[in-house]
Specification:
The structure holds 3 protein chains of 3 kinds.
Chain A (H helix, E strand, L loop, with lengths): L1 E5 L2 E3 L5 E2 L6 E2 L5 E3 L1 H17 L2 E7 L5 H10 L3 E5 L9 H12 L6 E5 L10 H9 L3 E11 L2 E7 L3 E8 L2 E5 L11 H9 L3 E3 L19 E6 L8 E3 L4 H14 L4
Parallel strand pairs in A: 1-6, 1-8, 6-7, 7-13, 8-12, 9-12
Antiparallel strand pairs in A: 2-5, 3-4, 9-10, 10-11
Helix pairs in contact in A: 2-5, 3-4
Chain B lengths: L6 H27 L5 H9 L18 H14 L1 H21 L2 H13 L4 E4 L15 E5 L2 E12 L6 E7 L9 E7 L5 E6 L10 E12 L3 E2 L5 H37 L1 E2 L2 E2 L4 H30 L4 H26 L1 H4 L5 H9 L8 H12 L2
Parallel strand pairs in B: 1-4
Antiparallel strand pairs in B: 2-3, 3-7, 4-5, 5-8, 6-7, 9-10
Helix pairs in contact in B: 1-3, 3-4, 3-6, 4-5, 4-6, 6-7, 6-8, 6-10, 7-8, 8-10, 8-11
Chain C lengths: L8 E5 L1 E2 L2 E2 L1 H17 L3 E7 L6 H6 L4 E6 L8 H15 L3 E5 L4 H12 L3 E5 L1 E4 L7 E7 L4 E6 L6 E5 L17 E3 L11 E8 L12 E5 L9 H11 L2 E4 L1 H5 L20 E5 L5 H7 L4 E6 L6 H4 L2 E4 L2 H19 L2
Parallel strand pairs in C: 1-4, 1-6, 4-5, 5-12, 6-11, 7-11, 14-15, 14-16, 16-17, 17-18
Antiparallel strand pairs in C: 2-3, 8-9, 9-10
Helix pairs in contact in C: 3-4, 5-9
The chains are: A alpha/beta, B alpha+beta, C alpha/beta.
């Protein structure tokens, strides 16, 4: 069985800070990681490799430094890595990204495609289903559990208050949640292997896509403004009250506001 | 001269740091308080193939360079020196000599299992009357037909009681002095071999440190490691290699102490402001950070030398000497910056200070390191 | 595609088991506001099987018109049949804007539709507005980088402009009694090729709690609560106040509470009348989920905790000591009031 896992290299948004003077993101020194939902997807694929001998190819669309994310995936146990990279792909929104990635995935053998639900930088949660639409295959989102039997996948698909048990024939695409599993660590030997493997590169010239469908030009949405939220005006802070005084203070405020 | 780590080494560091933070740190206080050997961490080391990091894939190792292995010990030591001790004694002392001096049969029988973690290794040189004066070996090994009979005891042996194999040293020919010492591979089940009392220690309290007792212990002839009489030089070469690991451990302890302290002094307020705003704190931190960085460079240099040169005793000795004294100095000063809270077990700094001390003693005391360094200085 | 041909604010109505999701009402409310600025009307798009009875409710909450696609194949949500039907609606009715709730359904359906139609989709919008530069483009504002920045996005050259919005972000209008709106029964036949995922079973998760997004009062616990057991005092407090307990991510990760009560960037967005933050430091990802609360009161032993920057009133102290005393005070005050 061939599994293609799509991953994204993202800045660790838990460590991103805002420059108080310019109001912009400080990106230097922020470590890059494999997006957590994608890592869960990769772990799911590696478990299928362990149990059924699946061949796992990991793919990412990004600038040259995204290679590090691919190396990490290889060090965790993926068999092959593909970097989809070209200046022409830059500035893409989710539609153009999905279109480009789908065109790249077409060049690989696949039975199952696994992506993460959303990336912690864009938080859009769109690329997975859009890749499936481009490839004209079914997609199952929010996978909580994945089982493979012959040509079929059975997935526990999460909703807010319930889950569906869905069965689909491969090829199909599944989006994974970080709650799906706990991803394994790399191994030191895996890192050595990862750096000995050749990462396949796919550029604009390799893809059967129209210029108007990729990169900035291919993006139906456009960012017109970015800004940092103005912090809400600080309220009143009291300290040096003992516990009873503090309890009374809060009660008084609630009475003032007619909550009680 | 390139001061950068390769992308591979950086990735390895990320792995070790992640693992240390998530798997090792949460246990650190508990295993120290309970003086408990961290068997669950050993299991994870096996699972994630950390047991043969610097050894070739041919033997089931990871095939990494020495520096990558030392970085592993450094990262582990930042959060738990006990755990690093367990791994370094196994890798540097328990496995290395068999790989370097073993016959093909011995390597086939033991090295693979040690590198994959199926076996835990240990090394036993020290005796009640043979510490720094390691040549004063009293444990005797007498050849009797197809086996040796060993009598004597060893003390302060790391990983004892949990190890599967021990590289031990015994006197086969007293009249030859140093050249009468031989090395053996002893399996835990050999008749006449037993593990004695466990030491209660000041620091690295989760590390298993016991006495080994040989009472007419039968060791097959095939388990002689290297040639008869070559034991002393095997021991010295093994310790050279191991002491870079101790340097890495000491370095990690110092770095861990600084990380905790910098966090603390930013939060703790006295006289209306954080301690970090006082010049004394700033100067102390500046001093310690610089020392620690210098120690790191010495350790890295020794690790690189091990892979590039046949002899690296001088670099290894300097690294251990300086990293150990840095660890002791930095943890002491860091505890002082914590004030009263640092003296309580609620904060990890007192454990780090207790752990630091051993690095000035084991695998060659700081005095021994100075002997080695001055020997090279006067050449 | 001629942009001018596309008119109207359409809202995808999420219904499960014959019940309309709260977020759909909220979106109808917002749609009314946008429709006014765009000088157009609000249309609800309802998919399901034997759900025509829900139309009156949709009119009450602001729909001027309803497009109803009633089909056995749409009884239970499934990605491709729903996406196919929505695309047919779009092709026929040509809406300028189509809004969806950012739910486990919306966030699966909307991207599939966007890819199929070839248009732009902006997810998790916290603000929707109309551009005043003559284009009347929809301005879609959303958080990015884990909530650290906000971005305003437009979809100038493609239609419909689509957006998903999280529950609890927009406000419903006060339902108009006995409202009615014309219903357009739009028939769509779902091709076999779209029915390629089998639903083997539907399993409901047991939950007797009020959903935190519906609660008016939230007593929320963070790492400062110390342990799972201390959440009991928060429950007592919530019961006394007539509210419910929620939590920061730290407590979910620590296994003290279930994820369904998590507030924050990767949890739920809440806008209660009162948000009582207990032992919560106020990391930016958490604030993203609750800072629009009407009234925020925070208790934390660290006076530098960022939660105090958004709290209307902040108390520095030991939350585990204050809360029980506070709960007693509340019970006494309510007993007094009821005398």
């Amino acid at each position: 069985m061939n599994i293609v896992v799509c991953i994204k290299q993202v800045p660790n948004t838990n460590e991103v800070k805002i420059d108080p003077k310019t109001g912009t993101l400080i990106r230097e020194g922020v470590p890059s990681i494999i997006n957590p939902d994608d890592k869960a997807g990769l772990e799911a694929a590696l478990r299928l490799k362990d149990s059924q001998g699946a061949h796992v190819t990991v793919l990412t669309m990004g600038p040259p430094q995204a290679e590090t994310a691919l190396r990490e995936a290889l060090a965790m146990g993926a068999d092959e890595a593909v970097l989809v990279t070209d200046r022409a792909f830059g500035g893409a929104d989710t539609w153009a990204t999905a279109h480009t990635i789908a065109a790249a995935v077409e060049k690989l053998p696949y039975d199952l495609i696994i992506t993460g639900r959303q990336a912690i930088d864009g938080d859009a949660a769109q690329v997975g289903p859009q890749i499936a639409e481009n490839l004209n295959i079914p997609n199952i989102s929010y996978a909580e559990e994945i089982k493979v039997e012959g040509e079929y996948v059975t997935v526990k698909r999460q909703f807010e208050d319930r889950y569906h048990i869905l069965k689909a024939k491969m090829p199909c695409l599944i989006t994974a949640l970080s709650e799906l599993n706990t991803p394994r660590y790399m191994t030191p030997g895996g890192i050595v292997d990862a750096y000995q493997k050749e990462i396949k590169k796919i550029t604009r010239a390799d893809l059967d896509v129209a210029d108007g469908d990729i990169g900035l030009k291919g993006s139906p949405t456009r960012v017109v403004k970015t800004f940092t939220k103005s912090p809400k005006a600080a309220g009143t802070l009291v300290s040096n009250l003992n516990s009873q005084e503090a309890a009374d203070y809060i009660l008084e405020k609630l009475k003032e506001k007619f909550i009680i | 001269m390139d001061f950068k780590l390769s992308a591979q080494q950086e990735m390895a560091r990320t792995l070790f740091r992640d693992f240390a933070e998530k798997e090792v740190k949460p246990l650190a206080q508990e295993i120290d308080e309970e003086e408990r050997f961290p068997t669950e961490t050993l299991e994870k080391f096996r699972k994630y193939k950390f047991m043969g990091i610097p050894y070739s894939k041919e033997w089931g190792g990871a095939g990494c360079d020495t520096l990558t292995y030392e970085i592993c010990l450094e990262e582990l030591s930042k959060v738990c020196a006990t755990t690093a001790t367990m791994l370094s004694a196994h890798t540097s002392l328990g496995t290395w000599p068999i790989l370097k001096y073993g016959t093909p049969e011995q390597k086939e029988k033991y090295v693979r299992k040690l590198c994959t973690g199926e076996y835990l290794g240990a090394f036993a040189l020290t005796e009640p009357n043979a510490g720094t004066d390691s040549s004063a070996q009293q444990t005797k090994a007498v050849l009797d037909g197809d086996h040796y009979v060993l009598n004597g005891n060893k003390i302060f042996i790391t990983n004892s009681g949990y190890a599967d194999t021990y590289v031990i040293f015994a006197m086969t020919n007293k009249s030859l002095g140093n050249h009468g010492i031989s090395a053996f591979i002893v399996e835990k089940n050999f008749p006449g071999f037993s593990v004695g009392k466990e030491e209660k220690k000041m620091g690295i309290r989760g590390s298993s440190t016991c006495e080994l007792i040989f009472e007419n212990c039968i060791v097959p002839k095939e388990n002689l490691l290297g040639q008869e009489g070559k034991g002393f030089s095997i021991a010295m070469a093994t310790l050279d290699n191991g002491r870079i690991g101790i340097a890495a451990q000491a370095l990690g302890i110092a770095e861990g102490a600084l990380d905790e302290t910098i966090k603390y002094v930013k939060q703790r307020k006295q006289f209306g402001r954080p301690l970090a705003k006082f010049q004394n704190t700033q100067f102390e931190i500046a001093d310690m950070v610089t020392k620690t960085k210098a120690a790191q460079l010495l350790m890295y240099r020794a690790a690189i030398a091990e892979d590039e040169k046949p002899r690296y005793s001088e670099e290894a000795a300097m690294a251990k000497l300086y990293c150990a004294s840095t660890a002791m100095d930095v943890t002491t000063r860091c505890l002082q910056l914590h004030g009263g809270y640092g003296y309580t077990r609620e904060y990890p700094i007192e454990r780090m200070m207790r752990d630091a001390k051993i690095t000035e003693i084991y695998e060659g005391t700081s005095e021994v390191q100075k002997m080695v360094i001055s020997k090279y200085a006067f050449k | 595609m001629n942009i001018q041909d596309y008119k109207g604010i359409y809202v995808f109505i999420q219904q499960v088991d014959g019940k309309v999701a709260g977020v759909s009402h909220e979106l109808l409310g917002k749609a009314r506001e946008l429709a006014q600025k765009m000088e157009t009307k609000v249309t609800a798009v309802l998919l399901g099987y034997q759900v025509s009875g829900l139309c009156g409710d949709l009119a009450s909450y602001g729909a001027d018109k309803i497009v109803l696609v009633d089909n056995k194949d749409l009884e239970i949500y499934s990605t491709r049949p729903y996406a196919y039907a929505v695309c047919k609606v779009i092709e026929h009715f040509k809406p300028a804007v189509l809004l969806y709730g950012a739910t486990a359904i919306g966030r699966d359906l909307a991207p599939r539709v966007a890819a199929k139609i070839r248009t732009g989709l902006t997810a998790d919008c916290t603000k929707l507005d109309v551009a005043d530069d003559g284009t009347k483009n929809l301005l879609m504002t959303r958080p990015a980088f884990g909530g650290n920045i906000m971005a305003t996005i437009i979809c100038p050259d493609y239609r419909p402009q689509m957006a998903t919005v999280r529950p609890g972000v927009m406000q419903k209008i006060k339902p108009v009694e006995d409202a009615s709106a014309p219903v357009d029964n739009f028939a769509v036949e779902i091709p076999e090729s779209m029915k390629d995922v089998q639903i083997l079973g539907v399993v409901k998760k047991e939950s007797h709690k009020i959903d935190i997004q519906d609660a008016k009062i939230l007593v929320s616990g963070g790492r400062g609560m110390g342990c799972a057991e201390n959440f009991k005092m928060l429950e007592d407090c919530a019961n006394a106040l007539g509210g419910t307990v929620s939590s920061s991510r730290a407590c979910v990760d620590a296994g003290w509470v279930e994820k369904d009560i998590q507030v924050g960037q990767t949890g739920k967005t809440v806008r209660p009348d009162l948000y009582l933050a207990c032992g919560i430091s106020g990391a930016i990802q958490h604030l993203a989920g609750m800072e629009e609360s009407n009234l925020i009161i925070a208790i934390n032993k660290d006076e530098t905790a960022p939660i105090f920057d958004v709290a209307d009133w902040g108390v520095v102290g030991d939350v585990t000591k204050i809360i029980p005393l506070f709960t007693e005070g509340v019970k006494k005050a309510i007993a007094e009031r009821n005398k």
